[in-house]
Amino acid sequence: MTIGSQRMTLTVDEAGLALADPKTYADDRLLHESLALLRREAPIHRVDAPEYTPFWAVTKHEDILEVEREHQVFLNAPRPLLATTELDVMNQQRAEAGIALRTLVHMDDPDHRVFRAIGADWFRPRAMRALEPRVKELAKRYVDRMVELGGECDFAREIAVHFPLYVILSLLGLPESDFDRMLRLTQELFGGDDDEFQRGASNEEKLQVLLDFFAYFQGLTDARRQNPTDDLASAIANASIDGERLNDFDTASYYVIVATAGHDTTSATIAGGLHALIEHPAQLAQLRDAPGLMPLAVDEMIRWVTPVKEFMRTATRDYDLRDVTIRKGEAAMLSYPSANRDEDVFNDPFRFDVARDPNKHLAFGFGVHYCLGAALARIEVRAFFEELIPRLRSIELAGEPESIATTFVGGLKSLPIRYSVD
């Protein structure tokens, strides 16, 4: 493999260690070289990285599906995301003290099922149809913004990061004046491993970002309980389980997962999708000539980018997966970028194909933990490109794209482009 001007040959162990390094996910070539090697030679590989509790990297599509199906064997708790051992311990201590982030990502049944139901109606087809005019209005606003920028911009920073956050603010019923604060907090939360976005490198500084989120949403909860409104924020603030309202941390956690997961994943897909169209002009031409392909193109963009890089699952008992026994208490990392380039599932997986059908990508997960906002994400991506592509006359890169360093959620943080839009 060529990185820069050098040829790099990875060993299986090096490929496994790369998955615990946030910088790997900012280098597509290194990431996919590592994952392809693991799929080929060690599809379930034990990773013993410095500062991390050992885990099993699961890289094949069918194995990830199996783990997702066995949700009573493989739990989200206590380690839903890859983190250092020190941070895992701190998170466990906070959880035991009742002061930890506890989103749907952190939960298992029966709590997961009950908490998921609180927001489920807001993401059903009827609710999505009601929101769609606002999504289309915002899509037009940001394509118009491209025109205002005069034919050159950093698309990731000036367009892609803004549009989905305004959609989420609309869904929650938050004022547009809160945009800057929410953008900063979401970037700091998901960009905690990136030198540009992190507030600080220490665990204490990362915790402060979360506490700032909680402080903002505590004020929102108080306001919606005093004066309920017809929005998702009010539904969360006034939700009850067994006759009791959610506690402050569970309420704030619900807001956090909606505001962050519904924003960063979609902005990454829109920026990465446009980058793919620029790099594959024949696909852009095909989509322009056959706009009916847009639903397929949206899923191909989602597969191509795969904004969520991993989730962790912990075994409740010994479990045989392929030729490996994952012991009780051991963790498995489900590598979604790997599943979505699996040669056994996707024909020519490294080809960007706006007409790909079927497209069995796992970017939204699978089973009981399937992404609650998947339909909204598809609507947003579709609305944006349905507005942009008929108005797009030319487009090219105006600089080198850059990706965020992360092991969880991310994509392009910079996409300089030069274009002509009507």
Characteristics:
422 residues; heme; 16 strands; three-stranded antiparallel sheet; 16 helices; single chain; disordered N terminus; 13% strand; globular; alpha+beta; five-stranded mixed sheet; Cytochrome p450
Can you offer a commentary on this structure?
The protein has 422 residues and is an alpha+beta fold. The protein is 49% helix and 13% strand. The protein has one domain: Cytochrome P450 (Cytochrome p450, Orthogonal Bundle). It contains 16 helices and 16 strands. Strands 3-4-12-9-5 form a five-stranded mixed β-sheet, sandwiched between helices. It has a three-stranded antiparallel β-sheet with strand order 6-16-13. Helix 6 (125-148) runs parallel beside helix 16, helix 8 packs antiparallel against helix 12 (248-279) and helix 9 packs antiparallel against helix 10 (203-226). Keywords: Heme, Iron, Metal-binding, Monooxygenase, Oxidoreductase. It comes from Actinomadura meridiana. It holds the Pfam family p450. This is Cytochrome P450.
CATH topology: Cytochrome p450
Name given to the CATH architecture: Orthogonal Bundle
Task: Tell me the number of structural domains.
Answer: 1
Tally of separate helices: 16
- Rg (C-alpha, Å): 21 Å
Specify the overall morphology.
Answer: globular
Rounded mean pLDDT is 91
Structural class: alpha+beta
Percentage of β-strand residues: 5-15%
Number of strands: 16
Q: Low-confidence parts lasting 5 or more residues at pLDDT below 50?
A: 1-7
Helix content: 40-55%
How far apart, in Å, are the first and last alpha carbons?
41 Å
The main pleated sheet reads as: 5 strands, mixed
* CATH homolog superfamily: Cytochrome P450
